[in-house]
Amino acid sequence: MRIAEIMTSNVHLVRPEETLQYAASLMAEWDIAFLPVADATGLVGTLTDRDIILRAVAPGFDAETTRVSDIMTTNITYCYDDEEADGVKANMNSLHLRRLAVLDRQDRLAGVVSQSDFLRHGI
C-alpha cells in the first residue's frame, strides 16, 4: 500500500509570518497537532502542538507577537506519496515521529501521514 492511499490530503497549513496565536487557533478548531509551514517556494517547516508548548509557552513568548518562523522545525523529515507505507512507518518509528509531511515527486505538499493512519489501515 502506498502513502497516497492512507494519508490525509486535505491539509491545513500556516505561513511562516503568521502568529502562534493563529496557528494554535487552527489546531484547536480542527483538532490537529501538526501544521506544515509553507511559503511561495513550498514547504519550509513544520509546527506541532509540542513545539508551541516547549519552544514558546514554556520560555514565556507572547503568542500574539511570536511568529511561526521563530519556533518552527526547519530540518524537515518527509516522505513521498508514492512510497510504500510499511517502509515509511518503519522510518517514522525509528525516528520517533508521530506525523510526517508528504510530498509529491515535484516536491509539492501532498498531505500528512500519521501513526493513526497506519493503524486505521492495519499497517
UniProtKB/TrEMBL annotation:
> Which InterPro entries does the record match to this protein?
CBS_dom (IPR000644), CBS_dom_sf (IPR046342), CBS_domain-containing (IPR051462)
Keywords linked to the UniProt accession: CBS domain, Repeat
**Residue ranges occupied by any CBS domain in the UniProt entry:** 7-64, 72-123
Q: Does the UniProt entry include the keyword Repeat?
A: yes
Question: What protein name does the entry list?
Answer: CBS domain-containing protein
Q: Name one Pfam family in it.
A: CBS
> Is-annotated flag, keyword Repeat?
yes
> Which species expresses this protein natively?
Shinella fusca
Q: Which SUPFAM superfamilies match?
A: CBS-domain pair
